[in-house]
Every structure is written in structure tokens, then in C-alpha cells.
Design brief:
13% strand, Methane Monooxygenase Hydroxylase, Chain G, domain 1, single chain, 8 helices, 61% helix, 3 domains, 338 residues, Heat Shock Protein 90
Amino acid sequence: MRNASVRRELAADGALTIVAGVAGYGAAGWRGAAAGLVLGLGFIVAALACASQRYREIAALGTRLDEVLHSGRRLAFESCQEGDVAVLANEVEKAVARLVRTGEELALEKGRLAETLADVSHQVRTPLTTVSLLADALVHEEDPAERRRLGRELESLVDRVNWLVTALLQLAKADAGALPMEAATVSAEALARRAAAPLALAFDLADVQLVMDVPEACAFVGDERWCAEALENLLKDCLESTPAGGTVTVRGRETALATTIEVTDTGPGFSDEALAHLFERFWRGGATEQRDLPWGEGFGIGLTLAKALVEAQGGTLAASNAPEGGARFTMAFPKTAV
């Protein structure tokens, strides 16, 4: 009786009972009035029985929800049926199933975040330890030539740590969809030249030839700055695995469906294990062998960042072994209109 809807229903049934009794009395006297009252009371009993049944169903639903919240049990859809309370139960089950799935996804993301933070801590700790040792050696070193060498090495390590922190921030923004992306026409040729410019000296020192095969008319819609960042990371990876005297080639092609930029090298290519983990953060299996370069050992985040930057613009980035041998990266930007 504390339920307002039940009280309203009983009041309506009581009023109908009175009306039925009065109508019965007018039609057949006291016998008609008694019949009307009995019929009305029957309606009241039936209404109370239905209300009681609804209360039991709602109580059962509450018990199942409590089990989900406290014991981790799932709601099943085997009880799906018609009826007002049943429909409510089905909708609640859908909502709970969604919440459970969201909770599992959040737990998975939390685990990934913990692993990423552990990886970041490990990646930063090693160069910082070396920085500390070099700084101490620099303070106590008296030979000017050795001091200059230590200073250059210290500066290189600081630059590497700075690059790592910057790359991680960019990757986090890309994951969150917070990177400002322009949607302008990008010349694939200009993009390739912009990405290769910072690596020109490194290619010369490594005795690796960089070949550009990108038509002037090849273009797509995207953000040239971030595409250049992604392509530069691909060129770095190819350079790391290409032996002296080898070649890294950049090819651009435009079709009615997409514009593709392909980067290949004449190195040993990727192992099956590498292809399965290549774009994972801090994974440094890479190619079957790698060479020393002026910027030192990589952190295993460049390819991850490249993929995130390309996908943030609606493109795709894939890795494979070229038929003629060597590694191959393919950036593809689908046409928005055909």
C-alpha cells in the first residue's frame, strides 16, 4: 500500500465497484447491487494479485542485480519475454551487460597503462643513468679532448630522452584523438622530401642510397606535418636494417581509390615474430638484424607512433616483406570521394 500506483489502482477499482453496485441496485435491486459489489471486489483481488506478482518479479530482478554488483555474476538473456516488468528486466540486463563489458575494457586498459608506465620507466631510467655517469665523469675529467667527447655524448643522450618524452606525448594525444589534424591537400613528393631531409646525413654516414620515386601529381588529403613525422620514422627503421651499399626506396602512387606511399629497403626483411609485434610499443625485435646509427639504439616506439599518426588521419599503415626481399611499409590514404 506504500506504492502510489497501487493506491491509485485500488481507488479506481473501488470507485468502479461502487458504481457497479449502484448500477446493479438500479437494475435488479439488492441482488443486482450485491452482484456488482462482488464483481468489483473480484477486480480488486485480481489487481492486488497482479501487483503482488510484479513486486515478486521486481524483487527477483533486484536480487539478480545485487549478485551482479557484489559477486561478479552475469545476467543472462534466457529469461527474455513479454510483459512490462519483463521488458524492464531485459533492458536492465542489456545495460548491466554493457557496464560489465565496459568494466572489463577499463580493467584491460588499466593493465595496459601499468605496463606502458613500467616500460616508460625502464626506457627512461637507462639513458638517465648513463647521463648521470657521464656528468660525473665530465666533472672530474681534466683532458679537454675527452671532456668535449663526453659533452657531445651527454648532449646526444639528453636529445634521445627529449625525443622519447615528446614521442610519448604525441602518442598519448593520438590515442586520445587530441592531436590537431589539418585536412589539406598534401603533395606526396613534398612530403617525402620533408621526411627525408633530417636523415640525409645519416644516410650518407651509413653508405645507404635513398631513392625517391614519387610523381609530382601524387597527392592526398591529410596533415603534412604529422605524415612527415610518420614517414621519417619508417625511413629510420629501414635505414637501421639496411647494410652499407644498400638502398631505401620511397614510391608514391595515386589511384581512384587511394594514395599509397611505399617504403622498401634491401635489408634482411622481417621475421614472422617481428611482423606479429612490429607496431607494439617498446618492442624492438624489428628486422632480423640492425646496424649502429648516429642516434644510437632505438626505443621501440617510432613505428607505434607512425601507425597512430597515420590512423588518426583515416589512413592505414602495414608492414610486410617485399617479394624481391627486404622490408616494406605501405601507408595508404583512401579517397574521401571517388
